[in-house]
Amino acid sequence: MATPKFIQDIRAKAGDTLLLMPGVVMVVFDDRGRVLLNRRTDTGRWALISGIPDPGEQPAEAAVREIHEETGVSAVVQRVLSVFTNEPVTYDNGDHAQYIDIVLRCRALGGEARVNDDESLDVRWFALDELPPLGPIARGRIESALRDDPTWFAPATPPGLGDEGYQAP
Question: Among the ranges 92-96, 100-104, 151-155, 161-165, which has the highest mean pLDDT value?
Fold first, then answer.
C-alpha cells in the first residue's frame, strides 16, 4: 500500500511510534457473484481491496476511490459489514501501525478489472469456489458479505458491570 502524504507528514514528526489508523476494506461483487481481489505488491499475496481514507473523506467515498484507483472498477457501497481493530503491525522500515477497518460490501457498476496502480501485481474476479489462498480474516469477511447479518463489532462491557451476568445486545 502506498503511504499517503498526510501519513508521511505525521511520520516525519512522530517517528516510528504506533499510529492508530483508519482503514477501509471492500468485498466487491460483480453481477455474476464473483469477488474482486488484488495480489499486493508489498506481500505478493491475494487480498481484498483496501485503503486509507484521506483527511475529511467519508469511508464510502474512500472505498469507491480506492476500488477505482487500484482496479479500474467503478463500484457503489451497499452496506457496512463490520468494524474491526486489527493486531498491530510493524513494517520493514520499523514503523508501527494498528488499523481500525471498516469493512464494506460493494457492488461493481462497470469498468474492467486490471492493475491500475503500483499497489497491485494482479487484479482479478474470482468465483467463490475458485478463490486463491486467503487468510481466515479475509475469508470471514467474504462469508459475512454473503449473509444479511447486522453489522459486526466487538462488544464492550459497560463500566462497572463486570463480565458476570452482562449479555451484549
Answer: 100-104
Number of Cβ within 10 Å of residue 77's Cβ equals 21
Q: What is the pLDDT of residues 17-26, one digit of tens each?
A: 999 999 999 9
The count of domains in the chain is 1
DSSP H helices, 25-165, are: 59-71, 136-146
* Cα 123 from Cα 12, distance rounded (Å): 32
% the chain with pLDDT above 70: 95
State pTM to two decimals.
0.89
Taking the CA atoms of residue 104, residue 109, residue 111 and residue 112 in that order, the dihedral angle to the nearest 10 degrees is 70
Domain assignment present for residue 56? The answer is yes
Number of H helices and number of E strands within the chain? 3, 7
Give the residue numbers spanning the domain of 83. 14-146
